[in-house]
């Protein structure tokens, strides 16, 4: 069977999904008034603070989706109420809000957790309450080991490491330096990269770290610069740290290839790093290069629809982080619809049974042993050129 024939069923599914999933963002006719008790879906994101460029598009996406969903009639004949809190990037606040969502707000599901640290702080609350939690953070420890009620939409840091090392190996790079953030995501990705790097015959010659509030990483980068044999540098991290690393990298005149993680897959990173971002390589979801995807790509229609709707509503460029929120809320609302119930356990079961969901981040298929449902093939390897993303031909 040729490639086109193999893709037809998935492409048909993607187009069918696009017509269903993207409709809530389009202009809608008036729907009947909803008088029943609302179905409450909770969310805690970092809409302000150092991680605002991640959490703000998540919050905007969730609000947009729920507002338009209610214009169509809600779910199960009931309105959907989004109970949204801003943790400001503080994991302790996130846990406090999680408790409030369970005990006071009585939510039936949760979509949120901008950072790995905030997510890990909230997991015990939702697990104990038996409420499904779809995280928007990257750390692999969120879903490994598998927890009954916890899922997530972003690729794991382990998958990002594997994608990066595949690219390095293909380019003949065998010796690298690492500089990692000490936040929850940075720590986790560093550890995952160190675990899998040997399988690609790549050696880490220098291993530096920086704090979440550090404003100058020149000393650490100088150590890497002065380490003989380093052929490329990898920066596991998210937030403002990687932009500072990238600027310092250019200031030191380092000409080695610089790899960032999917934690910076946002136009905001390019803006923060400025001209220094030129040539940076990173793995990212298709949403950043939707216009460059092949016509037969099953994600093309979904990505294009979300991008157009979000940018029209907000006046801002689309980001992978808003996309994580879009996939998260879609997965939860489809699970409620499929279960024909707003009972948390039934929502959880329907989530776990999800197969071939074509989202903006990838095509998800969950199972009892996999609460992410994505592999390295759902990543695209990008390079920043001329202040924008370019896509490797091999990942189209």
TrEMBL record:
SUPFAM superfamilies: Periplasmic binding protein-like I (SSF53822). Residues 38-385 form the Leucine-binding protein domain. CDD domains: PBP1_ABC_RPA1789-like. The keyword Nuclease does not apply. Keywords: Amino-acid transport, Receptor, Signal, Transport. The keyword Transport applies. Residues 1-35 form the signal peptide. InterPro entries: BCAA_transport (IPR051010), Leu-bd (IPR028081), Leu_Ile_Val-bd (IPR000709), Peripla_BP_I (IPR028082). GO terms for biological process: amino acid transport. Belongs to the leucine-binding protein family. This is Extracellular ligand-binding receptor. It comes from Xanthobacter autotrophicus (strain ATCC BAA-1158 / Py2).
